[in-house]
Write a structure and sequence with these properties.
binds flavin-adenine dinucleotide; Helicase, Ruva Protein, domain 3; 20 strands; alpha+beta; about 40% helix; FAD/NAD(P)-binding domain; D-Amino Acid Oxidase, Chain A, domain 2
Length: about 575
């Protein structure tokens, strides 16, 4: 169970800011609070290093919020010859499912296959770089890929091996599937419903383990000179300096921009934009039968139809983009994605009226001259810019880095930094559970017992105990205790959340704006459950905790409406 007292020992935002103003010298500054910055921060914190992480927006609001939510080896990367990456990613996928079982779940994934032999020539040609032509893969190429997939994890096979079903059997299981298929292949990967909460839990665990490790959202790195990096508090506008021995640039698609701010001209990143739609479509959800339907279109792009709680996620695109701040889901992308669904489930009608949310992210891929985005390496690397050009510290830029490989990448970065600091590793994170995945009851029987104990201990209904467990894993215990410590009420506009639950999140999870709660501490935005009344209600519930005036509440509501409009291309009604 979670150590509840740790919450109260942790520093709040003003305390952290104050501490930095008075003690600007630190061993490591991490710029960027996406998954890669946070994974590095956690590794360093656990080794006892004094480290500060700054994030210009909220944690997990960049590329890490734009992913397809898959924990996967990346079967198609085999074709680009990225065996190291696939092997590492498959191992890390398994570790994530073991260490964060509350949010990382096994995901049966089915590929509808339309041809037997196609791609047989193209795949090896691509591998030896003699072809860049995207092509649809036939059954034999996919079978070979899946055999390799199984082989890589043969010693740590925690999920069933792949299986090929001929047309008749496949259509029995998926009656709405395009009858032009020749067969389907089903294998297992991982799914994470709550990437934003995973980020936050890793971060909070790191802070709890080391009082010299602190993280601030809404603080950006704006300039570097000499021994200093100038930081800007995006809430107050105040600027102040820190003096790090080493800097980690984990700014994802913004890496080159952040380096430029520190007087280093780099061209490490060649980002590509990917958009997703979330649809409310019970028929499509049923047709997917709990499987992610995954295939590569004949233009080489990945298509996925992914059950996402009571919604379905559809994706994705892969379009080169220079400025990540300009990324948005365009109408063309919406058309493209909706059209692809037709190819898989021709009798199911999906149109714009089913869309409840849209989101876009920019993959921080390495700058590349590959002929198509699909051929750009998805592997990660650490690019070191040594001291010079006006700054006295080396900068370690984290290029690439998938969600799935976050722990391994963070570990590799931390090892390089430890070496520079002349220190050695004390703690291994491979088998370290985190957040609400700690002491997680694994079997159905154990889960039922855990939920019943929660119900009895907190004096809440069975339904509420189940909801909290599903939402927070074993972290539910601390939340239930907080909720029941005083009179609590369900939210009028979203009764399966309670007022004190929101206050708990605001108090303990580094919340600065109401959007942090709406879009990242909960799935309310992602599942398309927001409306103006609900936003107003949540902002009002937060008033006392945040010290907001009525004018602040108005501003927060306006900010939420604007963020959803600009970043997600959606209107809140
Ligand atoms: C469409 C899409 C689909 C994907 N699907 C998957 C998938 O299914 N599975 C998978 O494993 N991976 C997937 N990925 C890849 C994965 O999501 C990313 O590679 C990963 O999240 C990158 O994390 P990051 O921390 O490097 O970057 P980010 O998450 O972008 O974090 C960088 C952070 O730095 C901050 N920042 C920038 N400049 C500054 C500054 N000057 N000061 C302070 N902060 C700053 C930004 O605000 C941002 O939050 C996908 C990515 C995309 C875009």
């Amino acid at each position: 169970m979670l150590d509840k007292d740790k919450f109260h020992m942790m520093l709040n935002r003003p305390d952290i800011l104050n501490r930095i103003r008075h003690n600007p010298e630190i061993s490591v500054l991490v710029i960027g609070g996406g998954i890669n910055g946070i994974a590095t921060f956690r590794e360093l914190a656990l080794q006892g290093i004094d480290v500060l992480l700054v994030e210009k927006s909220d944690f997990c609001a960049g590329a890490s919020a734009g992913s397809s939510h898959m924990l996967h080896g990346g079967i198609r990367y085999l074709e680009n010859g990225e065996f190291r990456l696939v092997r590492e990613a498959l191992h890390e996928r398994n570790l994530m499912i073991e260490n964060a079982p509350h949010y990382a779940k096994p995901l049966p994934t089915t590929i509808p296959i339309f041809k037997w032999a196609s791609g047989l020539l193209n795949a090896p040609l691509k591998f030896v770089r003699l072809s860049s032509k995207p092509a649809e893969r036939g059954a034999l190429v996919i079978k070979i890929g899946l055999m390799m997939y199984d082989f890589f994890v043969r010693k740590h096979q925690i999920m069933p091996r792949h299986q090929v079903n001929l047309k008749a059997k496949a259509l029995e299981k998926f009656p709405h599937l395009n009858p032009e298929i020749v067969c389907t292949a089903t294998y297992y990967d991982g799914f994470m419903a709550y990437p934003e909460r995973l980020c936050l839990e890793l971060l909070l665990d790191a802070e709890a383990a080391n009082e010299k490790a602190v993280a601030l959202n809404y603080v950006s790195a704006v300039h570097g000179a000499g021994e200093a990096v100038t930081l800007k508090d995006e809430v107050s506008g105040e600027q102040f300096e820190v003096k790090p021995a080493l800097v980690v640039n984990a700014a994802g698609p913004w890496i080159d921009f952040a380096n430029r701010a520190m007087q280093q001209e780099t061209r490490f990143i060649g980002g590509t934009k990917g958009s997703h739609l979330v649809v409310d479509h019970p028929e499509l959800l049923k047709a997917a039968a709990g499987n992610e339907i995954f295939f590569e279109n004949n233009d080489g792009r990945i298509v996925l139809i992914l059950p996402f709680l009571d919604r379905v996620m559809l994706g994705t695109t892969d379009i080169p983009i220079d400025d990540p701040d300009q990324a948005e889901c365009t109408e063309d992308e919406v058309d493209y994605i909706l059209h692809l669904v037709k190819k898989v489930f021709p009798t199911i009608h999906v149109d714009r009226s089913h869309i409840v949310f849209k989101f876009t992210g920019v993959r921080p891929l390495p700058a590349s001259d590959a002929a198509t985005p699909g051929q750009i390496s998805r592997d990660h690397s650490i690019r070191v810019t040594e001291a010079g050009n006006g700054v006295n510290y080396p900068i370690f830029s984290l290029v690439g880095g998938k969600w799935t490989t976050q722990r391994a990448f963070g570990e590799q970065v931390a090892d390089q930094l430890l070496q520079r600091l002349g220190l050695s590793r004390k703690v291994d994170t491979k088998h370290r559970a985190f957040g609400g995945g700690k002491n997680y009851p694994k079997s159905d029987v154990e889960q039922r017992r855990w939920i019943q104990q929660l119900q009895e201990k907190a004096g809440i209904s069975a339904e509420r105990a189940q909801t909290l467990f599903d939402r927070y894993g074993t972290y539910a215990e601390a939340i239930a205790a907080f909720c029941t410590a005083e009179q609590d009420y369900p939210l009028e506009n979203m009764p399966d959340f309670s007022q004190r639950e929101i206050i708990f999140l605001a108090r303990n999870e580094k919340v600065v704006h109401v959007t942090d709660i709406l879009l990242r501490r909960t799935l309310l935005g992602m599942l398309g459950k927001l409306n103006r009344k609900l936003v107003q209600e949540i902002a009002t519930v937060m008033v006392e905790e945040m010290g907001w005036t009525p004018l602040d509440v108005q501003r927060e509501v306006a900010l939420a409406v604007e963020t959803v409009r600009v970043k997600h291309n959606m209107e809140l009604v």
